[in-house]
Amino acid sequence: MFEFTINQESDCKVLVLKGSLTIQHAVEIKEVFISSIDKYDTIKINHIEADEYDLTYLQLLLASERTALNLNKTIYLESPNSDIFNNLLKKVGLFANKWLGAETKSIILSEEVNG
Fold it and tell me: Which among 63, 45, 52 is positioned nearest to 9, based on CA atoms?
């Protein structure tokens, strides 16, 4: 199961994702990302309550980041991330950059993981 809500904060919309962020829900997740990028200039993604993540979800995050940057919009991850998500990042050689405040204009950077 995949669920999402969109909440308003003072400076951005918060996209709250719950459930299974995996290939089984990739089409739905992609539609939510595309719709959010179309509608809002600044989006914070909160996925701390997700049950599971996979490489497909990471690919969707990276594609969303590129799309947002090309449209001069900002999309970033809310801190903190779950241990499950951080372990997935380490397995694929990515890391969350400085817990990604809006000022970084970046979700995930492809750099080596320390430790």
Answer: 45
81 secondary structure, DSSP code: P
Taking only the tens place, the pLDDT of each residue in 17-57 is 999 999 999 999 999 999 999 999 999 999 999 999 999 99
DSSP 113: P
Closest Cα to residue 47, out of 18, 27, 70, 22? 18
Where do we find the tokens 């499950």? Answer: 84
Angle at 10 between CA 89 and CA 46, to 5 degrees: 20
Q: What is the DSSP letter of 111?
A: -
Give tens-digit pLDDT for 88-107.
888 887 765 533 444 444 44
Give the ranges where 40-95 is alpha helix by DSSP (H): 55-70, 83-92
